[in-house]
Design a protein that fits this description.
The chain crosses the membrane at residues 129-149, 155-178, 185-206, 234-257. With 662 residues, the protein is mainly α. It contains 34 helices and 7 strands. Among the domains are: 2-90, Ubiquitin-like (UB roll) (Roll); 111-265, no CATH class; 481-662, no CATH class.
Length: 662
């Protein structure tokens, strides 16, 4: 994949990096350091940022969901655009180094890679020079006493001439794709062929030397076995053996070692290696503003590298220091500190320690920050705390925590809203906190705001939480009149039937309340929305829709309104598209009730089952004793098999609630 990197320090340049999804950010930075070396700016220290998020060296391109042809920002670590490594060292000072010469280590790794690639370019250049000698050897081989040796010499030469890769340090491998992809194979094959050819040359030279030794060349007469041709052959084969040995040695060095080193191998190891945590924490605690900013960034990088570093940071008191830095006046320092905390708190044991030192209140305060990125990081920290421990949830809702979450739900980004919705859902699974949320108006308003989100996951979390709160207090849900319009408008914004089911369950609470039921009937979109809900092949959702309409048939006034808005057509649609027999019977019976001339008596103080029994008795007198049995059993089955939104109470356990939602 291609990545385009822009920087204000180089306003007229856009750097292009060829990367793989599993490459670390450190390797991408290594590619850029090589480019900066060519520009004479290898001392330029920078970070990478994508979609407002700073990229940490230990993570991969895929981890940050960076796509092909993405544009990444190169951000200098100092406000001065020409800030360099030596400048950073002068800021930090010798007494508070950020980690045993980290800058020099990276620079040495860069220069080491440069030397390796320079050597690769030189070795390939020398090898191609030897190929000219091989060509001369190929031509001169036909003049030797063993003239046929020129054929295998020519084959080796042709193989090397056509398949040898071409490389320059500034451009990398160039030429044919096959030569680049099979460069290791070429080195091995040529190395073996050249050694065989060298062996043959040595053997033929030995035969010629034996001939001269036996002949003796008396009086220096160059005739017979001591002819000029024999002497030429000895010199030829000896020179050919030396040349083949040199070219074979070059190929073995390239194939076994040099070609295995890629851009970033040395630099990546230095960028993600373990720093001196004790010195970093000392700088973060006592340093100046810029020093603290850099130290917070380094701690975030270390925390992302592995669990060992996390426990080392906590053991050295890093949790308290980062908690303090999260309230710094400098936004960059705050962001780095919260990033580090988010990494540390992936370990449940560290979460407990963080709650003990009062860190949750700090994160809750950061939800009010004007920086959306900071709010998102703080919400992520709180989500990790509430999702891994039941005991820590109380700390999140204390000290105006629910109000702060509501503010983030209203003003946060889409990603932040999704995280906040997840937090509220986790909190609602705890009985005590659910009761507290149901007694307040703020959480309900926040959940309504989250239901307006365009993100399906945010909507799902918010609707699930509202369903749990409805179990705790249906009056609290029925007081949220603006929620009706949102629930009825859901089919126009999504085709997710799981969301339909959640919305239908909540609408059932409005239908069971006389006041809100009338308000529900006044909605212009009621019929269309219920029709779309009823057209699904989910039998549970169809039963929920049928029961919503049944609640409207219990009162004479409501029944007349139901007739006026043509809810009979909804029941007809459900009956025609019933997912099972029970749904069909429910819809059919309700159609009979809706179209009947006499009205079902109002029974406000009776349960649904008792109302059905009264209704059945009355109909039995007119149509026979068994006419309503199917419908009554259908509606009773919905009563006897409650989901999380149809039955239950505040005594329901968290596990039962989760099962009901799922």
């Amino acid at each position: 994949m291609l990545l385009y990197v822009e920087s204000r320090a180089f306003p007229h340049k856009t750097f292009v990096v060829l990367a793989q999804p599993n490459d670390t950010i450190a390797r991408v930075r290594a590619h850029l350091l090589h480019v900066l070396y060519e520009l004479g700016r290898e001392d330029h220290q920078f970070r990478l940022r994508y979609k407002g998020e700073y990229l940490r060296d230990a993570y991969t391109v895929e981890d940050y969901k960076i796509i092909d042809n993405a544009i990444i920002k190169m951000v200098p670590l100092s406000k001065r655009l020409d800030q360099s490594f030596p400048d950073i060292r002068s800021v930090v000072g010798n007494s508070q180094d950020l980690g045993q010469g980290q800058v020099e280590d990276v620079k040495r790794a860069l220069l080491r890679e440069i030397r390796v690639f320079d050597r690769r370019e030189k070795l390939l250049f020398d090898f191609k020079g030897l190929l000219y000698l091989h060509f001369m050897g190929f031509c001169l081989g036909f003049l030797t006493t063993y003239w046929y040796s020129g054929f295998w010499t020519g084959l080796v030469f042709l193989y090397a001439a056509f398949l040898c890769p071409t490389y320059t340090r500034t451009s990398g491998f160039v030429g044919g794709v096959y030569a680049y992809a099979h460069k290791h194979v070429f080195c091995f094959v040529y190395g073996v062929l050249s050694l065989l050819n060298m062996g043959a040359a040595i053997y033929l030279a030995y035969l010629e030397i034996v001939k001269i030794s036996n002949h003796g060349c008396p009086n220096f007469e160059f005739v017979g076995d001591c002819s000029h041709s024999v002497i030429f052959s000895i010199i030829y084969y000896c020179c050919q053996a030396v040349a083949l040995l040199a070219s074979s040695a070059i190929m073995w060095v390239l194939g076994i070692w040099n070609f295995r080193i890629q851009v970033g191998d040395y630099i990546e190891a230095e960028l993600v290696k373990t720093r001196d945590i004790e010195k970093l924490l000392l700088t973060a605690k006592q340093g100046k503003l810029k020093e603290k900013r850099i130290a917070a960034f380094e701690l975030a990088t270390l925390a992302a590298a592995g669990d060992d570093n996390k426990f080392r940071i906590v053991a050295e008191g890093g949790l308290e220091i980062l908690n303090t830095l999260s309230l710094s006046r400098d936004e960059a320092t705050q962001e780095h500190a919260v990033e580090a905390l988010a990494e540390l708190l992936t370990v449940p044991a560290i979460q407990d320690r963080y709650v003990e030192i009062g860190g949750v209140q700090n994160m809750s305060t950061l939800l009010l920050s004007p920086d959306p990125r900071l709010v998102e990081e703080a919400a992520q920290v709180l989500y990790q705390i509430v999702s891994d421990s039941e005991e820590n949830k109380t700390a999140v809702v204390s000290e105006h925590g629910l109000e702060d979450l509501a503010r983030a739900a209203r003003d946060g980004t889409i990603s932040c809203q999704r995280t906040v919705a997840g937090i509220l859902l986790e909190l609602a699974f705890t009985t005590e906190i659910r009761g507290q949320m149901a007694a307040m108006n703020t959480p309900g308003k926040a959940l309504i705001e989250l239901c307006r989100s365009t993100d399906p996951e945010t909507q799902r979390y918010a609707l699930q939480t509202l369903e749990l709160l409805a179990i705790e207090s249906s009056d609290m849900i029925c007081a949220q009149h603006e929620l009706i319009e949102i629930l009825l408008g859901l089919p126009r914004t999504t085709v997710d039937e799981k969301l339909y089911l959640l919305a239908g369950k909540i609408l059932l609470y409005f239908a069971e309340n006389a006041e809100t039921c009338e308000l529900l009937l006044d909605q212009a979109s009621l019929k269309d929305s219920l029709t779309l809900y009823g057209k699904t092949k989910d039998p549970i959702l169809q039963k929920v829709v049928a029961k919503i309409i049944f609640c409207m048939l219990e009162d004479k006034v409501l029944k007349s309104k139901a007739k006026f808005v043509n809810l009979g057509e909804v029941l007809q649609e459900i009956r025609d598209n019933a997912a099972d027999r029970e749904v069909w019977e429910m819809a059919d019976e309700e159609l009979q009730i809706l179209n009947a001339d006499d009205d079902l008596p109002v029974l406000p103080n009776l349960s649904t089952i008792e109302k059905l029994q009264r209704m059945d008795s009355k109909k039995a007198q007119q149509y026979g004793s068994g006419s309503l049995r199917g419908s009554k059993s259908s509606l009773r089955s919905l009563e006897d098999k409650p989901s999380a939104s149809v039955a239950g109470g505040s005594s329901v356990s968290s596990n039962d609630l989760k099962k009901g939602i799922d």
